[in-house]
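Structure tokens please, single chain.
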Amino acid sequence: RHLDVVPNTHIQQRTMSNNLTMKSLSILTTLLLAAIQSHAFVSNNAPTFQHAIASKSRLSMSQSTSSSDIKKKTTLTDETKWRLRLLLNDVTTTKGKKLNGQLFVLEGNFIEEEGYEPPQGTFKELNRSDATSNDSKEAGDAMTLKVSRSRWTLSEDPNDKKDGLWIWGLFKEPLYPFMLLQLETKELKIGSINKNNDDDGETQDSIPPLKLYAQITHIRNEEVGVELKPSNLNVRVLERVQLPGASVDLYEEEAIGSISFQPF
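Here you go.
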């Protein structure tokens, strides 16, 4: 009788070979499952990714639109146009007629002159082509004054001449709570008066030149820029006093109405 004896080394090698095969199959199976899951994840999330891109695009457009809607800050330069509304009372015409509650409109820019402290400058009227006529109702009720001379100056309290605290470095920049505005107007033709009901007797009435003054509350708003508050309007009246051997011109300010400001 013969017995086939298999050496232990051959048995161990065959066992190791079987184990390697099983491990390989297990690894391949794991990789296959991972690939399937990864594909399913990408497929399920592809629309979400596209939606994210679209959302980002809309956000960018929204930011662009909102930035274009941001208004420029109002300034005392030629970058900002201002509409001045002057409501005058008890104005006497050259023919002696009294005007009460008459609205006048001025449109222009506050132009600052360089090199002055405190800041100051002039008011420059707009040309008719630059002026607006959107407020047709107001335009029909209002007259347009013409300015011959103007001057504005930013000021601390005009009744308190002491140096401001900004000089001592207590503020980053000067604080001027007031604007002192002076306007000298040209004669304004306002209509005709026919004394004898014929063309030869027709004479034209007018508003004489006026010297107007106002102390306006001036605010620097961080969001909107310069704000000018409505204020009282005065007219300067000349009174000549005769003294022995000389005459003295005295000016007296009288209340004549109000003034308001609107940037546009």
